[in-house]
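User: quick one, sequence for these tokens?
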């Protein structure tokens, strides 16, 4: 295939005002001809063609492509050991508490049983309702992603405007209701969002292009959605386990409960030989269980992130589409193996930082609620909690890029964090702005899917009229559960899409010449909106 035939294949559309492509051919031999005649009906953006570099016989592949071969060694071993010790401790405490609770009949009755399958409380009808609501949520999540792929720019503009309107409305509402601490915070957020509006608006073409690319890559690699769904089920199952463990802990070690007896039958006796029933014991155990739950949940989510980043998205960036024959076999499976073994200590390290911040924020929220009669203390606690929450969100954003560095290149956490910081310094705030635009668009999709799922639950309740809801006392809780299920379904699928967008930014920051060689038109389209990316090439 000649150069002319290769570059005249259907490629990505070049935005209006894009610079000519000749400057991007420096160091690559021959200049690419004009490719502006893009026809979206002939080829999706995913189907970029890549010509394998010509090498002398016996010569190795270019070193840039060798980077995408993570080192086969375990990193951050102390945090790996600490994580497994914490998880095993959670399992041991959970087994002791649940075993005692089950023996005392703590799990008697339940959904669909004789004791609860009447008009008194929820029964199997509710379980089927929520399962159907989950199906509805999944269906509308897929529909939203399809619409987003087709009308990306329009939906992104609409959701950006709606997000600013929502911030203003919340600020006004809190001033009217005299919730001054929240009103001040949301007023600041509203002012910042208004000031940043045009900066965000001007970057919508780039965010649109990258979002379309990622959705197409995900559609060609269904394992992206498999990872998202499996991660959702694992998180849900672990959440249920945590809830039952905390409940059983209260039942076993709270003074005065039937299970809080020693072998002789006296209340408040020795339970395990070292642990006595007391409020302090319960508080300590619940704190540890909550810490283990938050940390493990973070690790599960970040393993999913590293799996899709180091698998289909990373492989696509470095080797092109699967049909070109250069992509490594089973990239998702290999990436999951690295994330859950060799890189688990690094992922646990970063997750631990976020977990500590989240615990601090929860404690500050508890202080705020306990000092409702003291406005000054409540306001100070609220401001401190918001500050910690802001820091937590920034660390989570920073960690996402660090995990991608870990997944792509097999770095330890500290090295990945340093390179992420260097990436932000070298490439500016475009990654932050772009991620914000994509996040706003996907989050609004989550709210839309959640509302549709809740509406289905309401209609189903009104149509079937279950006996336990004769007075409508369970309508609000069931609708709330359906809303949360719908939002989580969309959020889980959206998290994989966000990971793909971030992976492309990391690839552009670390090895922009890879994309310049593999797909010059796509590189030119990105450089038109993100000019600092070319500094590593020209």
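Assistant:
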């Amino acid at each position: 295939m000649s150069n002319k035939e290769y570059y005249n294949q259907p490629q990505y559309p070049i935005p209006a005002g894009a610079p000519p492509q000749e400057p991007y051919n420096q160091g690559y031999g021959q200049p690419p001809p004009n490719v502006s005649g893009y026809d979206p009906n002939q080829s999706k953006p995913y189907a970029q063609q890549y010509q394998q570099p010509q090498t002398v016989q016996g010569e190795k592949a270019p070193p840039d492509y060798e980077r995408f071969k993570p080192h086969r060694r375990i990193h951050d071993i102390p945090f790996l050991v600490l994580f497994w010790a914490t998880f095993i401790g959670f399992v041991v405490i959970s087994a002791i508490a649940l075993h005692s609770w089950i023996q005392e009949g703590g799990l008697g009755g339940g959904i669909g049983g004789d004791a609860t399958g009447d008009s008194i409380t929820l029964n199997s009808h509710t379980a089927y309702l929520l399962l159907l609501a989950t199906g509805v949520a999944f269906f509308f999540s897929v529909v939203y992603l399809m619409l987003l792929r087709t009308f990306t720019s329009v939906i992104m503009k609409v959701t950006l405007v709606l997000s600013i309107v929502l911030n203003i409305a919340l600020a006004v509402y809190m001033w009217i209701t005299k919730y001054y601490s929240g009103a001040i915070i949301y007023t600041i957020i509203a002012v910042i969002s208004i000031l940043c509006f045009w900066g965000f608006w001007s970057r919508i073409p780039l965010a649109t292009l990258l979002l379309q690319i990622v959705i197409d890559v995900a559609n060609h690699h269904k394992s992206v959605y498999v990872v998202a769904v499996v991660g959702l089920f694992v998180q849900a199952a672990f959440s249920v386990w945590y809830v039952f463990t905390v409940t059983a802990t209260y039942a076993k070690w709270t003074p005065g409960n039937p299970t809080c007896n020693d072998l002789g039958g006296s209340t408040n006796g020795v339970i395990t030989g070292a642990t006595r029933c007391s409020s302090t014991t319960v508080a300590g155990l619940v704190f540890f269980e909550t810490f283990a739950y938050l940390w493990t949940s973070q690790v599960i989510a970040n393993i999913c992130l590293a799996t899709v980043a180091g698998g289909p998205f990373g492989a696509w960036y470095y080797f092109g589409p699967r049909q070109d024959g250069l992509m490594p076999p089973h990239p998702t499976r290999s990436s999951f193996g690295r994330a859950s073994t060799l890189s688990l200590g690094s992922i646990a390290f970063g997750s631990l930082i976020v977990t500590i911040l989240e615990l601090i924020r929860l404690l500050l929220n508890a202080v705020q609620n306990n000092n409702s009669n003291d406005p000054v203390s409540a306001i100070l606690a609220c401001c401190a909690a918001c500050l910690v929450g802001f820091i937590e969100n920034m660390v989570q954003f920073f960690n996402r890029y660090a995990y991608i560095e870990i997944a792509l290149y097999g770095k330890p956490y500290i090295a990945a964090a340093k390179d992420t910081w260097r990436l932000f310094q070298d490439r500016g705030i475009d990654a932050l702005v772009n991620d914000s635009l994509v996040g706003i668009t996907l989050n609004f999709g989550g709210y839309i899917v959640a509302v549709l799922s809740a509406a289905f639950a309401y209609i189903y309740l009104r149509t079937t009229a279950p006996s336990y809801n004769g007075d409508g006392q369970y309508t609000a809780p069931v609708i709330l559960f359906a809303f949360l299920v719908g939002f989580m379904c969309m959020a889980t699928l959206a998290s994989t899409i966000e990971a793909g967008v971030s992976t492309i930014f990391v690839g552009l920051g670390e090895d922009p010449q890879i994309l310049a060689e593999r797909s010059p038109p796509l590189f030119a389209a990105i450089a038109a909106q993100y000019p600092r990316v070319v500094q590593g090439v020209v």
